[in-house]
Amino acid sequence: MKILITGGHVTPALAVINELKKDKTIAIVFVGRQYTSDSELTLTYEYTQIEKLGIPFIHLTTGKLSRVLALETVTSLFKVVIGLIQSAAIMRKHKPEAILSFGGYLGLPIAIAGYFARIPVYVHEQTIAPGLSNRLIGNIARKIFVSFPETVSLFSKKRTLLTGNPLRPEVFREGNKPFPIVSEKPIIFVMGGSLGSHSINVHIENIISELTKDFVVIHQTGNIAEYNDYERLAALNIKNYHVGPHVYQDNIGWIYRHAAIVVSRAGANTVFELISLQKPSVLIPLPWSAGGEQEQQAALMERAGVAVTFDQSDASAKLLDLIKQAYKNREQYRRNFSKLRHLIQPDAAKKIIAAIIPKPADHERH
């Protein structure tokens, strides 16, 4: 059986791919972005990770849907048409028997092309508030998998399955130390998602001299060439400050295990990893996330008493205070994680695969 996997959320996709690879009868192809933008040749995190697994990677050029009427919207719609044409060609060439999308604008043209080619479409919604693309895909999907109980009612009840969010197994492993850390100071792990966050990078730059007096800081900056954040921050050469553009799979387990506090966006994958590992955090929700998903997810964590929230428009000094506050209250935060344990489903990837791949008994009945 050949399964085509696509979408903007690569972390749960990798979790499902790792589970699928255990079955040698299954072939996988992945459709995504090879470069971080159309104007630069920096390879994306998803491309490097999929290539490491030896899975065929197909680059797709497409645009984002928007309700705002502007010149950029017209240009983006033109790219959507290109994406649909490319997606139809991908269906004809690769002939997948199932499509699994992990959200985002990349998944929409693939799902539409698959639907018209009569290929079963499945979609996983990681967030508490579905974006426009997933809401549209939900209308044609054979099955919709969701992470949060609150999301079930937003799709067709008959076709929606609460699976939880697939977690990459690497976060639970010891992993390798990414830097030669010799200090005994507690570790703060700062990350901004696979692409990084320029806003978070600037805030950390403003407070790093003070922060490293009390902590070791591991900082994932991303590698967007427009800002050159990684090069600029690495050149600071500050003691107890370790900078990298990405955090790779063989390092993430070590960093999570040894970090006292995590400073991060409030994406669904990060939130589920923090809950699973019971890591106190300072969350900085992306202000323009689809449907306000990151604000809602950060609020859920804050209400449970396992995180504090920082508005990226606030002064950097406030972020420094919140990090110190979270560290001071970390033991209480850890105890509060019991309120969120119901959200974690260890077999999420297996549940998704079981709904896509028919069991031998199913073949016998047909």
Explain what this protein looks like in three dimensions.
- UDP-N-acetyl-alpha-D-glucosamine binds at residues 6-8, 168, 194, 294.
- Pathway: Cell wall biogenesis; peptidoglycan biosynthesis.
- One of its GO terms (cellular component) is plasma membrane.
- Keywords: Cell cycle, Cell division, Cell membrane, Cell shape, Cell wall biogenesis/degradation, Glycosyltransferase, Membrane, Peptidoglycan synthesis, Transferase.
- The structure is a single chain.
- The chain is α/β, with parallel strands linked by helices and 366 residues long.
- It has two domains: 2-166 and 345-365, Rossmann fold, CATH 3.40.50.2000; 170-343, Rossmann fold (3-Layer(aba) Sandwich).
- It contains 14 helices and 15 strands.
- A seven-stranded parallel beta sheet has the order 5-2-1-6-7-8-9, sandwiched between helices.
- The protein is globular.
- The mean pLDDT is 92.
